[in-house]
Specification:
Layout: H1 3-15, E1 19-20, E2 34-40, E3 48-54, E4 61-64, H2 71-90, E5 96-101, E6 106-111, E7 117-119, H3 122-135, H4 149-163, E8 172-174, H5 175-180, E9 183-184, H6 195-202, H7 210-217, H8 232-245, H9 248-274, H10 282-301, H11 313-337, H12 339-348, E10 351-360, E11 364-365, E12 372-373, E13 376-381, E14 392-395, E15 398-409, E16 412-418, E17 438-442
Parallel strand pairs: 2-7, 7-8
Antiparallel strand pairs: 1-9, 2-3, 3-4, 5-6, 10-13, 10-17, 11-12, 13-16, 14-15, 14-17, 15-16
Helix pairs in contact: 2-4, 3-4, 6-7, 8-9, 11-12
Length: 483
């Protein structure tokens, strides 16, 4: 939890309402997301009990497993879920768009949009991951055959789950996680995982404080848990009796009462997020999701194998390196898009904002053809500046321009500018900050970071298991103690 978020939580308690901690929305909210609310049977590892799924508030479909311990019924549930999810995924495999690559020298195609799954909380993300793992290796022939759509569903659920590892990806989102990225409630982060309580703080009913609304949300009769775990009282007093009785209509009715309140909350969360203006770089991150979707759709359509249970040593190292670079880029994007996020870096001394009090815009270095434009400016700031002389900073409002810190004297920071001023001996109009201008400089930048070189698979060192054999799915892949 950051300093400003902690402060915002304290203000929320005093104000009786959650406080915004961003000025813009940093997640992509689909115009037609697929909301998926899973329930699992208590005491059984990821055994599906029921789900409510649909791509609009009016299209909710209820799926129920009358006896979750029955393998055939679990996979019948998976087949029903597959018909919905795969139909939704397939609906984005029509329209394509052209994308310029290699600095405009070439063109490639990708799907013009991509699917987005929304679940209530991080527990829903884990359900998607485990259910994908337990279904993607199943066979549609031989012993214990399942419907052919089931392994395809598992592969797509695994795709969505793996996208959550990519910083900034919005292919699969937990509603509570998306909300707490933009609002600070007056309760603990653990309590924020309760969707009803969190929305109570963010959007309390008229005449009610966030704390009162959150307290009401703890009533499991009015606001049942958002899954995948169910309320223990419901399990003991209602669910167990209906499963033992084998009354499917009564079971469906009871489970609907557990899911319908969360269904309404999910679409309320969608509306709240849509009400925020989108950050500048959200679109580019969604483009990355579209690229990933296009690539995986082609892999599936081309008969590619399912995702392996474990990455090889080289693949795992490459993924970790990519994720580390992507996380650094994502953190920079959030700060550059949002003054409130950037304020955290100002507090830590990694960025500063102030007023230009002196400027020498035509200053140059060198002579003749080696002459270079290197203006000097002085910025007066009230922020703590912990940057050493020689450090490179970037103007948030001028992405193509960088500055070297020459000296920090009290509240004054002297900078030498380079780049983003044109090629002439005099700077382009407006390219050099003028005296009196308010400007912010930061040491963070969203720039390309070179990829670390790793050995090819066939040269994996013995310390990491040696060269791995080429992955081929086997019947053993589908065996899980909990499935």
């Amino acid at each position: 939890m950051t300093t400003l978020t902690s402060l915002a939580r304290a203000v929320a308690v005093r104000a009786g309402r959650a406080q915004k901690i961003t000025t813009v929305r940093h997640v992509h909210v689909h115009e037609r997301p697929l909301v998926f609310i899973p329930l699992a049977l208590a005491g059984e590892a990821n055994a599906p009990l029921a789900a409510m799924v649909g791509d609009s508030p009016e299209s909710a479909q209820l799926l129920v497993v009358p006896q979750p311990r029955n393998r055939d019924q679990r996979f019948a549930f998976a087949a029903s879920l597959a018909s919905i999810v795969l139909s939704y995924v397939d609906s984005f495999m029509g329209e394509v768009e052209a994308v310029a690559v290699d600095r405009g020298r070439d063109i490639r195609s990708r799907y013009a949009n991509a699917p987005q799954l929304l679940v209530p909380n991080p527990g829903g993300l884990n359900f998607v991951r485990l259910f994908g793992r337990s279904t993607r290796f199943r066979r549609s022939y031989g012993d214990y055959a399942v419907d052919p759509s089931v392994p395809v569903l598992g592969r797509w659920l695994t795709f969505f789950a793996e996208r959550t590892e990519h910083p900034g990806s919005c292919a699969l989102l937990a509603a509570t996680s998306a909300l707490v990225q933009h609002w600070a409630s007056g309760q603990s982060p653990v309590e924020d995982r309760n969707l009803a309580a969190l929305l109570g703080w963010i959007d309390p009913p008229a005449g009610m404080s966030g704390a009162d609304a959150a307290a009401q949300a703890e009533d499991a009769l009015t606001w049942p848990p958002a899954g995948p775990a169910t309320d223990p009282s419901f399990d003991n007093e209602i669910l167990g009796r209906l499963i033992d009785a084998g009354s499917v209509p009564a079971l469906e009715k009871a489970l609907a009462t557990q899911l319908e309140p969360t269904w309404a909350l999910m679409w309320r969360a969608v509306d709240l997020l849509r009400g925020l203006p989108s950050a500048t770089r959200v679109a580019s991150r969604w483009d990355a999701d579209k690229d990933a979707f296009t690539s995986y759709a082609e892999h599936v359509r081309g008969g590619g194998v399912p995702q392996p249970r474990r990455d090889s040593a080289v693949a795992a190292a490459q993924k970790l390196n990519w994720l580390e670079r992507a996380q650094a880029s994502y953190a920079a994007q959030l700060a550059l898009d949002d003054p409130l996020v950037l304020a955290e870096y100002r507090l830590s001394g990694e960025a500063f904002a102030g007023t230009v009090v002196a400027a020498d815009p035509t200053r140059t270095e060198g002579t003749g053809r080696s002459r270079k434009l290197r203006p000097h400016i002085t910025v007066l700031t009230e922020d703590p500046v912990l940057l050493a002389s020689g450090a490179t900073v970037h103007a948030v409002s001028r992405p193509g321009q960088k500055a070297a810190v020459l000296a920090v004297s009290g509240n004054a920071v002297r900078l030498e500018l380079s780049g983003g001023m044109g090629r002439a001996a005099t700077p382009a109009p407006g390219s050099v900050p003028e005296v009196g201008e308010r400007i912010c400089y930061s040491s963070i930048v969203d720039s390309y970071q070179p990829v670390t070189t790793f050995p090819p698979r066939e040269l994996t060192p013995w310390t990491h298991g040696g060269p791995p054999v080429e992955y081929r799915p086997t019947d053993e892949d589908a065996h899980e103690e909990w499935s």
